[in-house]
Amino acid sequence: MDWKDVGKTISKAAPILGTILGGPIGAAAGGAASLIASLFGCEDDPAAVMQAIQSDPQAMIRLKELEVQHRADILKWKTAQIEAEVADRVSARQASIDGGDRTRLYWLTIFLVAVIFAFHYAVFFWGVGDNIDSGMVDRLLGSMGTLLGIIIAFWFGASRSSQNSEALLYHSTPLQQSLTRPEGRKQ
Questions:
Q1: What does residue 163 show for φ and ψ, rounded to 5 degrees?
Q2: Whole-angstrom Cα distance, residue 157 to residue 141?
Q3: Domain assignments of the chain as residue spans, ordered by start
Q4: Rg for the chain (alpha carbons), in Å?
């Protein structure tokens, strides 16, 4: 049992809090874990917190209330998590550039993309021979597609944050606002 498992359970009621526990940043997850443990009066341990959640029938409601009450702190932790992920990607790319690897990475990318498209072209137009296992070719094509995605993510950037944002929006509760016009305003 680890914090990611607890985070998945908590995400059902408190998505922002749950994603912090499931994230990579220890300080943010540590703050969230302490907050949750104090809510249930248990020790700051994933197994103890999970047991407390499972034994309390009101746990999900209490977690949602906790998320609402401590929203400012939770959003600070989430922001720290996102900033650390971005900094990690930036530092990896910058290390490649500073080390003089940019030209090599550029030509390696060109070579790999050419090989990927050439292989796809060959399979599409010439097919697969009778004595070649088509399952192996399918796996190879899938792996090459994944490699192409990784290459694109390296050069153009990609992150989990857009997926997390979509999940948070999907699970969020919309604000209740009046849709009526203020008195005296014309259309």
A1: -65, -45
A2: 23
A3: 3-84, 100-170
A4: 24
**Amino acid letter at 48?**
A
Q: Cα–Cα distance between 174 and 162 in angstroms, integer?
A: 19
pLDDT, mean over the chain:
78
Closest CA to 154 of 82, 79, 116, 97: 97
Taking only the tens place, the pLDDT of each residue in 107-152 is 888 999 999 999 989 888 888 878 888 888 889 889 998 988 888 8
H or E element at residue 103: helix 102-126
pLDDT grade, residue 25 (50/70/90)? low
Collapsing DSSP to helix, strand or coil, 167 comes out as helix
Question: What does the alpha-carbon distance between residue 153 and residue 89 come to, in Å, rounded to a whole number?
Answer: 10
**Burial track 135-156 (b if 16+ CB lie within 10 A, e otherwise):** eeeeeeeeebeeebeebeeeee
Distances (CA, A) of 70 to 11, 63, 64, 106: 15, 10, 10, 46
